[in-house]
Structure formats: C-alpha cells, structure tokens
Amino acid sequence: MKRRAITFSALLTLLAVASLPATAGVYTDDLSKCLVSKTTPEQKGVLVNWMFSAMSLNPSVAKFVTLPDAQRKAFNVDMAKLFESLVTVTCKSEMQLAVRYEGNTAIGAAFTVLGQVAGRELFSNPEVAKGMSDLERYLDNDKIKAALNPAK
Q1: How far is CA 82 from CA 42, 46, 64, 71, 142, in A?
Q2: What's the pTM?
Q3: What are the CA-CA distances from residue 22 to residues 32, 123, 149 (Å)?
C-alpha cells in the first residue's frame, strides 16, 4: 500500500507541477538525467498523451475535448507501464539512490523534469509552433511595446 501511495503521489506531482522549475539534490538530478536521456521519443509521446488525457478533464477545456473512456484507459495503462519500466528497470539504481538519500519526493521531481522536456519537445513540433504563432496576429504590438518601455 505504501508503494502504491508513493507511485500515485509521484504521478500526481508530475501532473501538478510539470510547468514549475524543479529543485533537486544531486541524486534527484542523476535520476532526472537518466529519465530524460533514456526515454525514447515514443515513450515521451506516451507521457504527453497521458498528461493531455488528464488535463482534458479540467472543466476549462473538457468542453472542447472528446476522449472516449477506452482511450483514456489506454493512456493510463501505457503510462503505468512506462512509469514502472523507468523506475524498476531503466533508471532503477538512480531511483533507489535518489529515494534513499533525498526522499520519495525525488521521484516526482525527476518526473517533473521529464515532463518539462517532453512538453518542450511537443511545443517544438512545427505544426504546434505554427498554431501557437497565430496568437501574434491578435496582439497589439504598440500596447505591448508601451508596457515594456514605460515613459519616464
């Protein structure tokens, strides 16, 4: 039961603070480096899909997203398998040291870094970048310049 709580806590931490800067000790840094360097692009896609699935439940965006329960379940299953593989095989020794010397929060902190990297890769996709750049069409650059350079 304690292991399940730790795992669930780590996943919730990842989702809740994926956009916040991670502060960590040397062992958590090592775990973060392992997760980032040894996670394939396909595995990062699993993480992004899972994060999207979870975020789509937020009432602010839920009305715009139709995600069948079977697909949401598949994302959860895929992420559970990925999480287990990363902490029990791929980065097992780094995870053990991080938890031993820096506590259970090391897992969440390290997965936060992985989430940040996966998110950056998602936003670097040319189609996503193009979609985001459409925002510029609706900005009043004169107002922004005035706000950034207030008159003296």
Answers
A1: 11, 8, 28, 16, 47
A2: 0.74
A3: 10, 19, 32
As to burial, measured by CB atoms within 10 angstroms (0-12 exposed, 13-18 middle, 19+ buried), residue 122 is middle
Joined tokens for residue 85: 């593989």
For 20-76, the pLDDT digits (tens) are 444 569 999 999 999 999 999 999 999 999 999 999 999 999 999 999 999 999 999
Q: Give the pair of three-digit tokens for residue 83.
A: 């999480």
Q: Which of 22, 42, 47 is nearest to 98 (CA)?
A: 22
Q: Is the dihedral of CA 47, 50, 55, 61 positive or negative?
A: positive
- Report the phi/psi class of residue 103: left, alpha or beta, with left for phi > 0 and alpha for psi in -120 to 50: left
Burial of 118 (0-12, 13-18, 19+ CB in 10 A): buried
Q: Distance of alpha carbon 42 from its chain centroid, rounded?
A: 14
